[in-house]
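Exercise 7b. Backbone tokens:
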């Protein structure tokens, strides 16, 4: 009996993913942003795919280091592969990129590139400028001969970037961006203009409004890098209806706040071509599961609470594509 084997190295083109180059070119030209949604499990992946097929949106499936540790890197990669098969069977071939989110070393980027990722982020933004340049360039030099696109980062977001926690934002300095892009050859640039990771983006006093994003910094960067794709991390809007549901059904999330959707709409029309959203998906799942647990305390079949969570996630992702990012109908 022969057993089919495959070589350890597999390219994303063999699998059917696309890199982000054409995605961003179209997004820049037409004034919308491509959604980059994180997944860690089957229900999240199904919801992202279903929502993006229903709204005919291109999509960047993001895998963080934490997701690889949680779900197993090999299994996640095969889930990505399964996603493409599912899309083919459904007959709605939306473009899909498989992207490493917040890669923190050359080795993890290489491992993802060698196992079929079409795009990687090297996040060396916490390092001094010269070291950030050197590491980002090293990743670009490995990625580009394989036609994999690379996202670099300049400036530091407050909150948690994988295992690294930052107390305060360190806004991107526009005077650094030209040199960074020229020296590294990266394909897109994540910048810090006031967004942050997680569900607690602002420490607000009662009645205080969310401070606006630093569109002045974004505009300065757009002028210095005309037509260059910009990425916004930490772009969850932390919908208050889900926070209220979590609190109503036994949770405790006080003072959670996110980026107002109008500001994301404005960013999506600019040079921002990729908008990262993870926390909103976590909130939707948690709110829905908590509700089922309280309303049906006898329920013990995971499909009976993960299924409703998946349905609610589909609605949320469709809403983002259609009403916030403008990516619906751009497949
Ligand atoms: O930017 C961080 C993403 O939300 C991924 O989070 O590292 O907990 O998977 P994680
Ligand atoms: P949020 O925590 O705002 O969803 O940001 C996600 C993110 O930036 C993933 O890289
Ligand atoms: Zn991020």
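Sequence design result:
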């Amino acid at each position: 009996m022969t057993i089919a084997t495959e070589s350890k190295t597999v390219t994303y083109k063999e699998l059917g993913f696309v890199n982000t180059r054409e995605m961003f070119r179209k997004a820049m030209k037409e004034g919308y942003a491509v959604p980059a949604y994180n997944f860690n499990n089957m229900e999240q992946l199904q919801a992202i795919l279903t929502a993006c097929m229903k709204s005919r949106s291109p999509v960047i499936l993001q895998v963080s280091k934490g997701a690889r540790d949680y779900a197993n890197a090999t299994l996640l990669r095969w889930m990505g592969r399964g996603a493409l098969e599912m899309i083919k069977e459904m007959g709605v071939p939306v473009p899909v990129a498989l992207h490493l989110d917040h890669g923190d070393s050359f080795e993890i980027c290489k491992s993802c590139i060698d196992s079929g990722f079409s795009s990687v982020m090297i996040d060396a933004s916490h390092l001094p400028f010269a070291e950030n340049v050197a590491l980002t360039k090293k990743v670009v030099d490995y990625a580009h001969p394989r036609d994999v696109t690379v996202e670099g980062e300049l400036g530091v977001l407050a909150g948690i970037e994988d295992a690294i926690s930052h107390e305060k934002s360190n806004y991107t300095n526009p005077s650094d961006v030209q040199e960074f892009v020229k020296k590294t050859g990266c394909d897109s640039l994540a910048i810090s203009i006031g967004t942050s990771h997680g569900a607690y983006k602002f420490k607000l006093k009662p009645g205080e409004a969310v401070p606006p994003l630093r569109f002045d910094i974004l505009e300065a960067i757009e002028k210095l890098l005309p037509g260059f794709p910009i990425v916004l991390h930490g772009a969850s809007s932390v919908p208050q209806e889900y926070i209220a549901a979590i609190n109503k059904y036994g949770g405790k999330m006080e003072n959670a706040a996110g980026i107002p959707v109008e500001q994301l709409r404005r960013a999506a029309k600019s040079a921002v071509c990729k908008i990262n959203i993870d926390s909103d998906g976590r909130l939707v799942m948690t709110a829905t599961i908590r509700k089922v647990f309280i309303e049906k305390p006898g329920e013990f079949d995971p499909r009976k609470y993960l299924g409703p969570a998946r349905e609610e996630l589909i609605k949320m992702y469709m809403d983002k594509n259609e009403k916030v990012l403008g990516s619906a109908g751009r497949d």
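Instructor comment: The mean pLDDT is 94. The radius of gyration is 19 Å.
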